[in-house]
Amino acid sequence: MVYDSLHKRLRGPIVKALGDELKVKNILALPRLDKVVVNVGINKSKLDSKEMQGYIGDSLAKITGQKPVFTRAKKAISNFKVRENMIVGAKVTIRGEKMEQFLDRLFSYALPRVRDFRGLTTKLDGHGNYTIGIRDHSIFPEVPAPDAKQIFGMEVVITTTADNDEHARALFKKIGVPFKPEKKDEEKEVEKVEAEAEAKKAAEEAAIEEAKPAEEEKEAKEEKDGKEAKDDASSLSSDSLKEEKKDKNSDSQSQS
């Protein structure tokens, strides 16, 4: 089986399938890829050295096929130990066929090499753009295995001409972006029922907790009333005994 590159698929089956899905007849009105920006933040404590900066520049050049631009701080920030005109990152902006080749390698070779990879999130930025965070740059086969201290992360921002996230998401699906599988309706129903059961159980527990002080107060009141009744009964019995004794004494006096 011959594998068609993303450059060919974007101008062939992807355009046709995307037009049918979005119901757009004009090819020029369909969403398309605009540019890809790959950027790396340079941390002062770990990556702030000329050797590391050179390694980051060489790695980005191998990965993207284009020389990166080092970005500098516009102003000094003492809390972050950043001085003015200090190198704080590196970025590469790629367009055209070079961008398509990079995305083809990213989705077909690099991301499947991530350990325990289960798919990318389907959330976009609201304007049809998508950001992918990569923790380990060594997933790209162009870069040889680095030392542990040389590993750095990067951010890949894919910009499209889509007006909304739905159109951009449809384009990414046709390209072959490995999104996480969507949950089925049955699984959603089961989760909904479980969530309702948990909420009901929590409400019952809360009601029981609220009812506990009232029950304790009621029991204390009943205990107090019982004690008072007992005291009254004992006082009445003692009074009756006294009266009986008094009567006996009076009877004995009268007999004598």
User: End-to-end distance, in Å?
Assistant: 136 Å
CATH-derived architecture of the domain at 6-181? 2-Layer Sandwich
Element string (H = helix, E = strand)? HHEHEEHEEHH
Main sheet specs: 5 strands, antiparallel
Helix content: 40-55%
Q: Please mark out the parts with pLDDT under 50 across 5 or more consecutive residues, or reply none.
A: none
What integer is the average pLDDT? 82
Q: What's the level 1 CATH class of the domain at 6-181?
A: Alpha Beta
Into which percentage range does the β-strand content fall?
5-15%
Q: Tell me the structural class.
A: alpha+beta
H/I helix tally:
6
β-strand number: 5
- Assembly context of the chains: single chain
CATH T-level fold name of the domain at 6-181 = 50s Ribosomal Protein L5, Chain: A
How large, in whole angstroms, is the Cα Rg? 39 Å
The 3D shape can be described as elongated
- Biggest β-sheet: strands ordered side by side in the sheet: 2-3-1-5-4
Structure in words:
A five-stranded antiparallel beta sheet has the order 2-3-1-5-4. The protein is α+β, with helices and mostly antiparallel strands and 256 residues long. It has helices spanning 6-10, 13-22, 50-64, 96-110, 165-175, 185-255, and strands at residues 33-41, 69-72, 87-94, 130-134, 154-160. The protein is elongated. The longest helix has 71 residues, at 185-255.
